[in-house]
Amino acid sequence: MSVFDHYRPNERAFIEQVLDWVQQVEDNYMLKVTDFLDPREHQIVRQLVGKQLAIYEDGGFVGAERRRLILAPDYYELDPNDFEIAIRQIDYPTKFVELTHRQVTGTLLNAGLKRQKFGDVVLDDGIAQFATTRDAAGFIEMNVDRVGKARIRISEVAPEAVLVVPEVKWSDEFGIVSSLRFDTVVSEVLGLSRQKAQALVKHGDCKVNHKPIDDPSFILEPDDLVSIRGYGRVKLTAILGSTKREKIKIQYGIIR
Fold first, then answer.
1. Residues in the chain with pLDDT < 70?
2. Which residues lie below 8 Å from residue 176, measured CB to CB, with a gap of 6+?
3. Please, which residues have CB within 8 angstroms of residue 31's CB and are 6 or more apart in sequence?
4. Which of 24, 130, 155, 250 has the fewest C-beta atoms lying within 10 Å of its C-beta?
5. Which three-class secondary structure state does DSSP give residue 128?
6. CA distances (Å), origin 234, targets 8, 29, 59, 132, 237
7. pLDDT tens-digit map of 6-28
């Protein structure tokens, strides 16, 4: 059985990349610093690397969801500077503008930055900060001066002024579904009709493990994180068996 058989087909390219990273570290006795990876990518890296290499992680913020990893030989001694993370703040007219995560993310992407080059966006009482790489920070400072119609300025952040990612509180819920199809689970957890759930998925309003999925028949698995625009996030935490009518009992967490 191939290593790829343990993962979904759409994860194959990332798996190949991770295996290449491992080979580079082992062959050249040098560390590898990744881009900002999402939680599912972290999970895959740790599964594939196992105990072959030392793994360290940092996202710039306490509680960061997207983090850079260092893969290194076991004799490597961690130097936090090796993560090469820069925290930047967006200074904007708070009296006239209220920034959202989507606006900040969209602005950075529209500037030509790949999503892997910046991490979490943290907003707190008129303060907006984001994590990025040191290399990308200069590019952002030169090319980003607006969010929407608002003029902004990108500035450095002193270590003592870095925000903390707010703690996420999940509510545990239980449900019964006829299958683990994407649209079926979305219909159950959001209390929507099957037709409306299908429309949400097909319209591109849903992600699984931070990746856009527009196929209603996509099969979900335990630990999958589903993001639904306008509705929040759902994490499928467990499959609890079947009912007498052969339907599937599920446990999930939800934040709105």
1. 256
2. 188, 243, 247, 248, 249, 250
3. 25, 70, 71, 72, 73, 76, 82
4. 155
5. strand
6. 20, 41, 22, 26, 9
7. 899 999 999 999 999 999 999 99
Q: In this predicted structure, what is the pLDDT of residue 2?
A: 86
Tokens of 179: 């299958």
Cα–Cα separations (whole angstroms), residue 30 to 23, 51, 72, 165, 209: 10, 16, 6, 31, 30
pLDDT in tens, 212-243: 999 999 999 999 999 998 898 999 999 999 99
Sign of CA dihedral 194, 200, 203, 205: negative
Return the SS3 of 101. helix
What pLDDT, on a 0 to 100 scale, did the predictor assign at position 98?
82
In this structure, the chain runs to a length of 256
Residues in a beta bridge with 131: 87
Alpha helices in the chain (DSSP H): 12-28, 39-49, 101-110, 134-143, 182-190, 194-202
CB 209: neighbour CB atoms within 10 A? 21
Residue 142, CA distances (Å) to 60, 84, 111, 116 in order: 21, 19, 10, 19
* Burial state string for 137-163 with b = 16 or more CB within 10 A and e = fewer than 16: beebeeebeebeebebebeebeeeeeb
Structure tokens at 34: 């990744």
Question: Which residue has 């008129």 as its token pair?
Answer: 126
Question: What's the maximum distance between 2 C-alpha atoms anywhere in the chain?
Answer: 62
